């Protein structure tokens, strides 16, 4: 791999600590078990928060992507998003284990998630600039594998340094959940420590750098033009429609996996961390191998195979009563996370017209978040109506199935 390819892929290592520790395994479970009045109420509250964040991301990402293209400032906007993600993640430290801190915790997680997702728009759009079209799938897969490795390394650090020691290190008070809350500080530091290579070594293409105000007006008009022109690109339109559903299903799975494990299987923070470590190991293996699989099957087929496997394994996880079987199915499930996401990123890079890549990746983010409010909202409604976390999580299977059905009709890119 070239230095530019490594620099780009290394950002996955840096930013994956946020979804792994905050959104999925530690802070989500801490909110449910430590802050919310009870696990079911916690899942409902977390669901509505994720729904509002998803709606915000869906509205903002296409416009900001178009502005980044128009102004030639992808790196600057990635830097700003990275700093704001770290800032709001730091704020989670102040969320004490009392229901009175629920709103503060939700606000910090919501804003951290918003800027994390916006940062991925600018980051993903750099992919076609760092490698050849023939290597898009491989480099995307390596980046995703590094992301799983980074999330794993951060989880292990949190487990060994903060959560596991008793008495806790650094004078942290277990009664106030300070070892768990301090994991947010580790994530913020991790992002700042490892997120810089892409900002230094990946130069932007030589384009006219317009003033911010002019870039905003031009970006808005470009976004309207892209939206009006989507019917002339049926492959992109169908792909984005498919991604509306299957990415929403994956996002619900990531956002509520730890909430589900904590509430249904009564996993403590340490066991959830160990489960997260196992998932990140299998996820990294799947993402790394998925890049080579994609070169043989093509991005579309790789995504379809991964989605079908996720549906079968996820359905099994909702039915089993044994915690041991849940663990086995979960580790197997992890093998298909990476390929479904990495192949989606490279398929978008193949389909997007040159010169409009960031704007299309803004639409790509939109397609992953436009219905981002729907999955969590449905999960919250079903969970609240049935009083069952298992019933609520069936929303994931429905979303994955709808996405796979639509994706099957998308023509494969000509270079596959």
What does this entry look like structurally?
This protein has a single domain (3-200, 210-407), classed as Growth Hormone, Chain: A. The two termini are 22 Å apart. The model has no long low-confidence stretch (mean pLDDT 83). The chain contains 18 helices and no strands. Helix 2 packs across helix 12 (234-264) and helix 4 packs antiparallel against helix 12 (234-264). The chain has 416 residues and is mostly helical. The radius of gyration is 20 Å and the shape is globular.
Give the SSE map.
Layout (H helix, E strand, L loop, with lengths): L2 H13 L1 H9 L1 H9 L3 H33 L2 H18 L10 H24 L1 H4 L5 H28 L14 H17 L2 H5 L10 H18 L4 H31 L4 H29 L1 H21 L3 H29 L5 H13 L4 H13 L2 H19 L9
Helix pairs in contact: 1-8, 1-9, 2-6, 2-8, 2-9, 2-12, 3-4, 3-12, 4-6, 4-11, 4-12, 4-16, 4-17, 5-6, 5-9, 6-16, 8-9, 8-13, 8-15, 12-15, 12-16, 12-17, 12-18, 13-14, 13-15, 14-15, 14-18, 17-18
Keywords:
80% helix, 0% strand, 416 residues, mainly alpha, 18 helices, Growth Hormone, Chain: A
Low-confidence stretches: none
Cα distance, first to last residue? 22 Å
Instruction: Please state the structural category.
Output: mainly alpha
Largest sheet: none
Helix coverage percent: over 70%
CATH superfamily: MFS general substrate transporter like domains
The rough form would be described as: globular
Label the CATH architecture: Up-down Bundle
How is the CATH topology named? Growth Hormone, Chain: A
In the CATH scheme, the class would be Mainly Alpha
Would you count the extended β strands for me? 0
The number of helical runs is 18
Radius of gyration equals 20 Å
Query: How many structurally independent domains?
Result: 1
Instruction: Tell me the series of helices and strands, N- to C-terminal.
Output: HHHHHHHHHHHHHHHHHH
Strand content: under 5%
């Amino acid at each position: 791999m070239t230095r530019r390819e490594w620099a780009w892929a290394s950002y996955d290592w840096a930013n994956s600590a946020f979804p792994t520790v905050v959104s999925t395994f530690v802070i989500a479970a801490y909110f449910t078990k430590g802050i919310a009045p009870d696990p079911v109420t916690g899942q409902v509250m977390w669901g509505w928060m994720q729904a509002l964040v998803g709606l915000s991301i869906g509205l903002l990402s296409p416009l900001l992507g178009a502005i980044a293209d128009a102004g030639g400032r992808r790196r600057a906007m990635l830097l700003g998003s990275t700093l704001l993600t770290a800032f709001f993640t730091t704020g989670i430290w102040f969320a004490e284990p009392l229901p009175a801190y629920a709103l503060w915790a939700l606000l910090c997680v919501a804003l951290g998630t918003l800027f994390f997702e916006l940062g991925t728009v600018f980051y993903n759009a750099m992919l076609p600039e760092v490698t050849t079209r023939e290597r898009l799938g491989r480099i995307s897969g390596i980046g995703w594998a590094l992301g799983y490795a980074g999330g794993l390394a951060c989880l292990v650090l949190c487990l060994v340094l903060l959560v596991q020691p008793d008495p806790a290190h650094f004078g942290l008070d277990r009664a106030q959940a300070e070892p768990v809350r301090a994991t947010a500080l580790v994530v913020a530091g991790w992002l700042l420590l490892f997120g810089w290579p892409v900002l230094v070594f990946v130069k932007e293409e030589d384009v006219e750098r317009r003033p911010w105000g002019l870039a905003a007006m031009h970006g808005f008009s470009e976004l309207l033009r892209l939206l009006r022109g989507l019917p002339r690109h049926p492959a992109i339109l169908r792909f984005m429609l498919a991604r509306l559903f299957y990415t929403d299903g994956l996002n619900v799975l990531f956002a509520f996996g730890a909430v589900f494990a904590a509430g249904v299987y009564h996993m403590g923070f340490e066991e959830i961390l160990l489960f997260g470590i196992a998932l990140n190991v299998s996820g990294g293996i799947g993402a790394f191998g998925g890049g080579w699989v994609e070169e043989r099957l093509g991005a579309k087929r790789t995504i379809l195979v991964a989605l079908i496997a996720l549906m079968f394994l996820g359905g099994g996880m909702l039915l089993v009563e044994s915690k041991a079987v849940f663990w086995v199915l979960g580790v197997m499930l992890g093998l298909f996370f990476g390929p479904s996401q990495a192949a989606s990123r490279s398929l978008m890079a193949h389909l997007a017209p040159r010169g409009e890549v960031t704007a299309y990746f803004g639409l790509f983010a939109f397609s992953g978040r436009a219905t981002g409010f729907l999955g969590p909202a449905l999960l919250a409604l079903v969970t609240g109506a049935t009083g069952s976390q298992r019933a609520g999580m069936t929303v994931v299977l429905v979303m994955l199935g709808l996405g796979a059905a639509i994706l099957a009709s998308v023509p494969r890119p000509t270079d596959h």
